[in-house]
Amino acid sequence: MDADFSNLSKKFNAMKSVVRVPDIDPKYKISILASKQEHCLVDLLHGWQDGRFPIHITSVISNHERGPNTHVIRFLERHGIPYYYLPTTKENKREEEILDIVGDTDFLVLARYMQVLSGDFLKSYKKDIINIHHGLLPSFKGSNPSKQAFDAGVKLIGATTHFVSEELDAGPIIEQLVERVSHRDNLRTFIQKSEEVEKRCLAKAIKSYCELRIFPYEANKTVVFRS
């Protein structure tokens, strides 16, 4: 089987070939990185608790401090999931410490982690990193995509889940979801609608990834087999 899949990956110029039997193999070990906004993080934690994802969350890492009585910290303590607060600066992204924490994970999830991981980090980690971007890529890259979309007068807003690459917001796209907006919306409602779409988009992408329905090919494309 290894030889057959290796030949297939070479034939189609696939990035990798993995054989995994979801009902037999252990759950994926993941770490979640998040900044101040919690909607995607909380949704993933509750989805994990409800058994929606075949994952084991080994840690949550953030550059934003949370008090001991906040919902996230109480949830993590109740389930025995370590929380690491690593404040970052432009000069120090704490990447070596993050690598030490996530070394034995199967993949990482950036659930609104508002820091750019360096090429050195990606080369050192060597495994997949999934990011949720609160805008429809390849438009509205970088920060404040909701404001960019609002200023552009769009009629559809959305979210994009993609693999992280060295170029900002340019990795292979896994999933995109949209929500209709109109002239009646303002920036606040743009952001509210975007947050709801983000949660669904990230959850759907992680589920597809864990069920081995994502097939990367060429330099920047994916095939996603629908369940």
From TrEMBL:
Ranges for domain Formyl transferase N-terminal: 29-206
GO MF: formyltetrahydrofolate deformylase activity
Keywords: Hydrolase, One-carbon metabolism
GO BP terms in the entry: 'de novo' IMP biosynthetic process; one-carbon metabolic process
Full protein name: Formyl transferase N-terminal domain-containing protein
Organism, as annotated: Solanum commersonii
